[in-house]
Amino acid sequence: MKPLLVTMGDAAGIGPEIIVKAFVAGELADAVVIGDAAVLRRAGAPMTAVIDHPDDFVAVPPGCLPLLPPPGLPEGLAALPRGRIDARNGAAAARCIEHAVALVRQGAGAAIVTAPIHKEAFAAAGVPYPGHTEMLQALAAGADGAPPPVRMMLANAELRVVLVTIHQSLRSAIDALSFEAVLDTLRIARRSAAAWGLEAPRIAVAGLNPHAGEGGLFGDEELRVIAPAVAAAVAEGIDARGPFPPDTVFMQARRGAFDLVVSMVHDHGLIAVKYLGVEEGVNVTLGLPFVRTSPDHGTAFDIAGRGVADASSLVAATRLARRLAR
Q1: Alpha-carbon distances of 153 from 2, 28, 35, 57, 270, rounded to whole Å
Q2: What per-residue string of b and e applies to 253-281 under the rule 16 or more CB within 10 Å gives b?
Q3: Which part of the chain has CATH 3.40.718.10?
Q4: What is the pLDDT of residue 194?
Q5: Mean of per-residue pLDDT scores for the chain
Q6: Which CATH code fits 157-272?
Q7: What is the C-alpha to C-alpha distance for residues 94 and 114, in angstroms, rounded to an integer?
Q8: pLDDT (tens digit, 9 = 90+) per residue, 59-112?
């Protein structure tokens, strides 16, 4: 049995704390944390066992958190203050992700679960990616150097939402919408749904504009881009419908009319999922050659180190990673 690989996230945020809470609750018995031992001890880890390879986790005594420090970690992370942006924490978080991907691609891990990073710390460290999704996509490039097409999905027990565009300004996201981007999203969503038992998912496509454009009165993206992409997907045998007004389609999906919703821009889709509660939400990167999940919240610098962070979303992410990795 290969372990889950759990990356530490930003050391100044709640990532280490929720990892420790999940471990103490018995939810990480089959996991290895990729990170810094001193940071995890500062977060309350009862005992840590530093290992050299994920396979070594089976020899770790009960009650010890298996910890694999990646090469190249900055020193002194545990001495840095919590709740503050620091380039060293951004560099450390990126190094943990890089090492986890290398290990899982070697077959040394079942899946990756990532604790939250801080995007400004990433930028301060010179990491050339705006977030996890883009970084994982680049690290998953094939032998030809081409990265796979990926999409972000946020899911909980009531709603699954897949995004066409992700971490970019709203203005640039609208400019990035294209027939190909929407159609590729529908293809990735259909293929990925098979991993959780939906061979023919019912996919609702949300429009971009109010009332899904109202026949072109409030914008023509639905007519020019989205509806043609939906029609092309249907011609390929994908059960896609829409575009529907984005202010109502999520309610229809939550009530069982659809298995998932494709959203054109980040906040259209994620507000709907997060409003239902971040405690059980999970971020899944679709299209990677390995399974990756994450909590659906950020680093929560405002409460880091206070002992009040809720590990529920991380627990949900680890449980889903196990199911998808089977």
Answers
A1: 25, 23, 25, 30, 9
A2: bbeeebbbbbbbbbebbbebbbeeebebb
A3: 4-149+288-325, 157-272
A4: 85
A5: 95
A6: 3.40.718.10
A7: 11
A8: 999 999 999 999 999 999 999 999 999 999 999 999 999 999 999 999 999 999
Structure confidence at residue 38 as a pLDDT band (50, 70, 90): very high
Distance (Å, whole) CA 6 – CA 8? 6
Q: How far is CA 261 from CA 67, 103, 130, 268, in A?
A: 37, 32, 24, 11
Structure tokens at 127: 């990491």
CATH class of 4-149+288-325: alpha beta
**Alpha helices in 13-86, H assignment, sequence order:** 15-24, 37-42
- pLDDT at residue 191 above 90? yes
Dist CA 50 CA 32 (whole Å): 10
Distance CA 243, CA 226 (A): 7
Q: What predicted TM-score, i.e. pTM, was given to this entire model?
A: 0.92
In this structure, the number of other CB atoms found within 10 A of the CB of residue 40 comes to 24
